[in-house]
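[Meeting: bench + compute handoff]

Bench side (C.D.) handed over the final construct sequence. Compute side (W.E.) agreed to return the predicted structure before the next meeting so the bench team could plan truncations. Sequence as handed over:
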Amino acid sequence: MYRSLLVLTAALFAIGTDSFVIAGILPDAAHSLGVGIGSAGWLITAYAFAYAVLGPVMAAFTARWPRRTLFLTGLGIFVVGNLLTAFVPVFGVALVARAVAGLGGAMVSPTAVAAAAALARPERRGRAISTVLAGLSAATALGAPIGTAIGSVTGNWRATMLFVSALGVLAAAGIALLLPKIANPPLVPLRARVAPLGDRRIGMTLLTTLLVFTGLYVVYSYIAESLDRTTGGSGTTLAALLFVWGVAATIGTLGSGALVDRLGARRVINTAIVVLTIDFALLPWSSAHLGTSIVALVVWGVCAWGLLTPQTHRLIEAMPTAAPMLTGLNTATVYVGVSIAPPLGQVGIAWLDAHWLGPLGAALIALGLATAETAHFIIRRHQDHAAAAHAESLPAATAPEVSRAS
């Protein structure tokens, strides 16, 4: 089982690296493709939008495919998309290539998590899932900085895309050789996968995710420009800063679960959003110096990635029977935010300056606090009504207490 989990982790590492690495090489890509830095941000949008929108669609479409066939097909599409990006000289074709890579990633990522759960015994299922998801955390801490450094050292951003392609090939080889046969999960039609969106509790919680991650990626999409006063244009310095951000993100991911268990989802969500809002509002000044940039990136990484666990917890607590679909919808919502952010950042750069994208992101993140509190009160009211209805059929002394943790 451990070898199988390792190759699934490698697949998510490759896909996660592709998600985060473009921001580090965006100025070079813009120059090479003959477009402005704002327009180049659409390379991030094309990948993220295809990933977000096609994830549920492909999960429904490929439900009857053997899992190994699905993984190898998805990784093959992913590699082709990145190879096309590495070699095409035309910006419009590069956008299509990024969307192709996003399609491949959408086929692999949700299925990899489900496969990890299917491979493990029930008492070890949580650890199996967290092991595979560690591939995404490792992509922020290692994949994106290494890819950025490769582009800087070689002086060619296309070498970074070849690096990502190689990661995909290695992951596909591991799956072909080491992954055992896995039973297909129960068939869930597309309509059922998106049905939870009609519930106000789910919709408002996902809107929080959308607002916060759009605000975060308004800055991250143009991180090279936002931190140019600190890096002096050095790709290796930027890679080092991205490594710091990635380590902080991993700490936030790993530590948030214990905080949710101790404090409840509401406190963790609200604290993370407030701290992120302050952090981003101060970026025009903190990003001007190395020391303060490091502090800002650590706060950003810990709080942003620490938000995913309590948001997922809130969704599952609101609708436990739809947990797998809700997890997928939350991930898709993150990528919708990632896809929206670059055009917003392009407008921000045109009106203001790349160094002032932080306050723009802070405004969106602050709106996320309002929707988070709205979601909490909707969920609490639903719990109160359910408890009251249940209490009518019980003696008053045995009426259950209502949880307020969400």
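W.E. noted at the follow-up: The chain has a mean pLDDT of 88. C.D. will use this when planning the next construct.
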